[in-house]
Each structure stands twice: as C-alpha cells, then as structure tokens.
Amino acid sequence: MNSLDNRDVISKLDASSMLKLISGLPDQCREAGEIGKRVTLSKPGRRIDNIVFAGLGGSAIGADVVRIYLQNELKVPVVVSRNYTLPDFAGNNTLLFCASYSGNTEETLSSFKDGLARGTFIITMGSGGKLKEQALKNNFKHIDIPKRFPPRTALGFMSITVLVVLSRLGFIKSKDREIEDTCSRLAELRDKEIGADVPFQKNISKKLASAIHGRYAIVYGTSDSSEAASIRWRGQIAENAKALASSHVLPEMNHNEIVGWEFPRDVLKDIKVIFLRDKNDHPRTQHRVKISMDIIKKSGAEIFEIERKSGGLLARMFSLIYIGDFVSFYLAILNNIDPTPVKCVDYLKEELAKI
What counts of helices (H) and strands (E) characterise the chain? Predict the structure, then answer.
C-alpha cells in the first residue's frame, strides 16, 4: 500500500485535522455565499474609483482570486496591498476591504488606520480581534467569519463572500450560479480525483506530491486565469509541507526568468515544473506556454501540466487551487510532518511583539 493511501499514517501525522479542513472547501464556499447574502450593507454613497484589498497570507489570497476572476468585468481597478500602508492613490473614492482572519494582523491593522485617515470607505472581514473592534468603533461594516479555521483554510470565506458583497453593492452581476457550479465541481473533484479516499493510482494530487517530494518545485500560472492559483500553490507548499517552492506568471516570465533555465545545470535537472493552464488564456499566451516548456525541457527538468476544461472560470480557478491544496497536504505526509503548525510564523510574531 502506498503511504498516501494509509489512513492510519495520515491520521497519526495530521494531529490538527488539516485534511478535514481542506476537504471541507466545497461546503465552506456555500457557507461563504450565505454569509455574503446575510450581511447588512450600506452603499458607499460616493463615487468609487478603485478597490483596494489590504491583507497578508491566507487573508490576502482570496483577494487575488477575486482580482483575477473579475479583471474583465470590474470597471474600476483592483489592487491587493500586502503592506503596512496603502498605495498613495487610496482616498475618499476608494473602497477598502481590510481582511484579517485573526483580526490581529499588524500590517492589516496599520492599513485600516491609514485608510481611516485618508477617508476611504472601509469594509472589514475576519473572525474578530482588534480589526473588528476598530471597525465597529468607527461605524464601518465588519463581516464575521467563523472562527474554527487556520487562515490558509478560509479561502472560500475570503473570496466567495467578497464576490457576493461586490454583487450586492452593484459592482458586478450576481454570481450565485457560478458559485453553486464551483461548489458542485469541487466536491466532485475531491470525491473522484484528489481526495484521501481516492487511491494513489487514480489520484492526481497524490501522484504529483510524490513526484515533487524531495525536489524544488516551480509553479507557473498565467495573468489571464491562474496567477492566483500559482501564488496559492507556492504558499500552501510552504505552510503545509514546510517546503520551498516558487511561482511566476506568463507572459511576464518570458521576459526574464525563462533565460535563467541554463545554470546551474546540476540543479535544474532536479527541479519539478508545474504549468497551470486554462482555456481562457490569451491565444498568444498559450503559444508562449508551449514554447516555454520546450525551452525548460532542455534543462532536464520534469514538467507537469494541469488544466481543468469543464465548468465556468470560477470553478476552473478554484479547481486548480484545490488540486494544489491536496498536493501540499500529501507532501506534508511524505515529509513526515504535521501540516498545520507554522512555527516560524509564530516565532516571527513573538519577536515582533518584543519591539
């Protein structure tokens, strides 16, 4: 029996039930949609020229999903700010989403304070903490997210809820049908292709985790559809599997990084490369992907292509993300480590608290 098919091995290592949390994403997305519908909202009452999402880590990746998914529909620019301060253009005509799952992320709290001083229209999201306190104190809407999740497992809340809110505020059309399609397809993908009960020989994520185990992985997405997914893969491999990986996007990667696939030759041949593809990608970008793979193959690196062809764009984006979430979990098991703890992050916060 392959170790990834051994539930006893998995249960012993997965002390904090990360598998259960990852497996629950389809239900979480449905719950997130309901949260978005229930929250009481007031329209800004002013012209909105731009939307800024302030957040870090697992609380920011949802904003990346929203940004990529809506880039051809939203009529105002969207920026994801991962810093202590907001971009200089942010002001009275900015809709500012401050997202912190814990509610205590210091960069996001700083961004909230910055947005308050600039007169932005603020909506906050999280499970409580100082962010909620500050939002209510200053009469801004706070969207409550359930408390039972590590931030990186709250992707549905941090993205689907925002889509519903943006729809209710009149920025986009209703996404109810697309959200339901996404939930159904994620459940089917889990049960038939990537979940723990799907045996190794039929399991996309188990096979890929095994292939990249002990190797450095590079994940390439595209600006049209899979940029957020590539960022998510890198983050999940780091947090869950405690392993380094990198990500980049095409066509930008073709103007710099592609040249680096020559040295050091003894290292390049051991790298595993994952291309996340989508039928929505620009035709020229699709050609670029094929040519890039030809160039990379010359280094000896092994290449994997992942694409989901059915369903709407939201479902396809989430499916690519979901495959990667399970890859990161299985890689943690192969690394003989509990995927949930993030000791380095905890240490960083403790040290920063002393300053």
Answer: 14, 9
By the 8 A CB rule, do 156 and 29 touch? yes
Active site residue 298: no
Active-site residue flag, 239: yes
Query: Taking Cα atoms as reference points, which of 61, 95, 55 lies closest to residue 75?
Result: 95
What's the pLDDT tens digit per position in 284-308?
A: 999 999 999 999 999 999 999 999 9
Query: Does 59 lie in the same domain as 148?
Result: yes
Q: What is the pLDDT of residue 148?
A: 86
User: Has residue 252 got a pLDDT over 90?
Assistant: yes
Q: What is the pLDDT of residues 208-223, one digit of tens each?
A: 999 999 999 999 999 9
Q: What is the DSSP string of 9-51?
A: HHHHH-TT-HHHHHHTHHHHHHHHHHHHHHS-----SS---EE
Determine, yes or no, domain membership for 352. no
Separation CA 142–CA 124 (nearest Å): 5
If asked whether residues 236 and 324 sit together in one domain, one would say yes
The active-site residue out of 137, 255, 309, 354 is: 255
